[in-house]
Amino acid sequence: GDSVTQMEGPVTLSEEACLTINCTYTATGYPSLFWYVQYPGEGLQLLLKATKADDKGSNKGFEATYRKETTSFHLEKGSVQVSDSAVYFCALSDDGGATNKLIFGTGTLLAVQP
Amino acid sequence: GAGVSQTPSNKVTEKGKYVELRCDPISGHTALYWYRQSLGQGPEFLIYFQGTGAADDSGLPNDRFFAVRPEGSVSTLKIQRTERGDSAVYLCASSLSSDRGREQYFGPGTRLTVT
After folding, report:
1. Taking CB atoms and an 8 Å cutoff, what residues of chain B touch A57?
2. I need a surface site. Which of A79, A111, B39, B97 has the fewest CB within 10 A?
3. A to B CB pairs, distance under 8 Å
């Protein structure tokens, strides 16, 4: 079945460092790919998405490119801030179904130190 | 506008008891999803409603779990004969539709603890 694998955390960075959180997926069809973020004490919220190969999603300085050839959707940011500290979830929805239900990775905790 | 709300925020119950968890989706959202998130894991899909009907309940772990959405808005997740393994955060999400790539908006979750 479909699945998402993302790098384990925690990831600890100093402010202004570069961030990459790896995400790879397995899917039978052509899924849509998402990054959701959960800030401390808050609910899950969509950070960015891409719905077809070679699309780049971007938001709040974060970017991720849908790479079909490597089945990857790595999250990147050039300069992290303390306020980026959160848990990041990579997810997919399989377009083969009619539900758009999400399959999540296990999450990666990012801690940014001043 | 108002987001997805869930009540209660926390629920502690004894093993074997029955619980109901409520979700109020964003007004006008026809698609509603329930997920379960165990500690240190990502959310896992339980059930999807389109309107009033459960269009996909393939994620429900067993027949102790049941959900309804009688008027196409509020949904209730019902768990019978609770077990300690049911302890988790139960998340509700809603979406304008189930179209491919459509964003889901999540509620804050209900933390269920079975003692």
Report:
1. none
2. B39
3. 67
A6: enclosing H helix or E strand: strand A3-6
Question: Which residue in B94, B104, B111 has the most chain A C-beta atoms within 10 A of its own C-beta, making it the best mutation to test that interface?
Answer: B104
Q: Check whether the bond before B8 is cis (ω within 30° of 0).
A: yes
Which residue is listed with tokens 């490597």? A70
User: CB of A48 within 8 A of CB of A77?
Assistant: no
Residue with tokens 């399959």: A103
CB contact under 8 Å between A106 and B44, yes or no, is: no
**Distance separating alpha carbons of residues B76 and B69, to the nearest angstrom:** 7
Q: What is the pLDDT of residues A13-67, one digit of tens each?
A: 999 999 999 999 999 888 999 999 999 988 899 999 999 999 999 999 999 999 9
Secondary structure (DSSP) of B70-106: TTSS-EEEEE-S--GGG-EEEEEEEES---TTPPPEE
